[in-house]
Structures are given as structure tokens and as C-alpha cells.
């Protein structure tokens, strides 16, 4: 048995010997070729990385320029729009009694459209500053219920025009919260105008302000409108997301409002979420910390 194995070993050694003699040379060349190929690929990779870094820098620069231009344009549009809306309102107040129905409706449409454009301009301005990473919050003690009441009053005409009723339920005696008042109002306005926009005639919108968990306050906006699917919900807070359909009265959709809401709410250290199903309305809930982040 042992002899047989030794014989096998010898036979194997004899068969391998030419190979093992040739191997170092062949292996050496192969390794060299491999190294050359690797170094060529490495060079190509470095060149591609440099090109990518350059393209990225150019993209960032043009994005920055786009934001600046958008910001400037939105800023410049804001004042004349305010003037148009203001004068339309003044005319409605002063001469409405002397106008016939067609003239009154024209005036109303001028005012509504200029308000809608102002809303778009505000969104564009917010987006430009958010993209430039400049969400600056100026916190001050804010009465969330008071803010909600003001916002509901502001949207009353819009809701009436669509035959939608708004009900406000605000908890009494809530402490003031350290929030950016203007930006929190922007969040409310986006949620409330969405609720009206996607409600059917005869629908009801409920705005709620209440205490949340210890140290938190909760704002909710619930409607009985068309609601949304799970797929829609999943991408709701991304910029320029919209389901493709208009509001229930043909209102425009841009898809920026909720992205802006999310950025502002998260900037405050809060959370925003939605509960909805197709045809079953939508409830948006915003939770905000009562104290600023340093004191929280
Ligand atoms: N209450 C709601 N009911 C049903 N769908 C809604 C509701 N709120 C938002 N959506 C859906 O989410 C999309 C995004 O909303 P978002 O507020 O971001 O943009 P928008 O209302 O289309 O435009 P804008 O930038 O003027 O606010 C809407 O286009 C709509 O499809
Ligand atoms: Mg909106």
C-alpha cells in the first residue's frame, strides 16, 4: 500500500515537474500584465473621479445660481402682487355696491388669482432659501391656538367659495410655545389650503390645537375630501410631488407646500404625518416641542 502511494507520488511529480519549472516565468508575466492592467484601470478611475468631481462642482454652482435667480424673481414679484391684491380688495370694499355682478366677479377673480400667485411666490422663495440650506428660525413665544384662529379666518373666504365648512377646536389654556411664528403660520396655511383644495362641496374641515405628549403641542387638519393612496402618501413630503390631478374646483397643484411644511416642522425639532385613504379624506398631524431645542 505504502509502495503504491510512493509510486503514485513519483508519477504525479513527474507529470507536474515541467509545469512547475515553467510556472514562475509564466506566472511572473501574468502578474506583470495584471499589474499593468490594474494600474491602467486605476488611472482611468482617477480621471473619471476628477471629471465627476468637476461635473459635481459645476452642478452645485448652477444649482446655486438657479436658487439665487429663483429667489430674486420671487422676491421681486412679491411686492407688485401685494399691490394688485391690495387694490383689488380696496376696490371691492369701496365700489362693490356700484358694480354689476359681472364686474364684481371680475374683481373677485383678480384678487383671488393675485393671492394664489402670492402663495406660489412665497413657496418659491421658501424653496430657494431651503435649498440654499438657509432655514432660519426666529423663535418667540407663540400662542398656537391664536395662530390657528387667525389662519382659519384668513381661509374663510376661500372655504366659503367652495362650500366647505371649517371648524376650529382649540384646547383652552395651552402654554405659549417657542416657535417661529411666521413659519408656523406658513405650515398651517399650507395644510388648511390643501384641505380646502381637495375637499368636495359640502365637506367639512376640522382644525385642532391640543396638548400632545409632555412638552409637546399638536396641530391637526382633517378633511373629508378625496384622500390619497398609500403610494401617494409615501412620496407626499418630497418636493414637486403631486398626484397629477387638480384640486376639486380645478385649483392648481405645484407640489411644494408639504415639502416646505416638513422642512419647517423638522427644523423646529417636530414631526409631521398623514393618515388617509382614497375617498376617505386626510388628516395631517404636526407635533411641535413647546420649548426650543436648547431648553428641551
Ligand atoms: N388634504 C389632501 N387631500 C388629498 N390630497 C392631498 C392633500 N394634501 C395634499 N395632497 C396631495 O399631495 C400633493 C402635494 O401637496 P402640496 O401641498 O405639497 O402641493 P400642492 O398643494 O399640489 O401645491 P402647492 O405647492 O401650491 O402647495 C397634492 O398635489 C395632492 O396630490
Ligand atoms: Mg399645497
Automatic annotation (TrEMBL):
The keyword ATP-binding does not apply. GO terms for molecular function: phosphorelay sensor kinase activity. It comes from the Bacteria. Keywords: Coiled coil, Kinase, Phosphoprotein, Plasmid, Transferase, Two-component regulatory system. This is histidine kinase. Its EC number is 2.7.13.3. It catalyses: ATP + protein L-histidine = ADP + protein N-phospho-L-histidine. Residues 31-72 form a coiled coil. Signal peptide: none annotated. The keyword Phosphoprotein applies. InterPro entries: HATPase_C_sf (IPR036890), HATPase_dom (IPR003594), His_kinase_dom (IPR005467), HisK_dim/P_dom (IPR003661), HisK_dim/P_sf (IPR036097), Sensor_HK_Regulatory (IPR050736), Sig_transdc_His_kin-like_C (IPR004358).
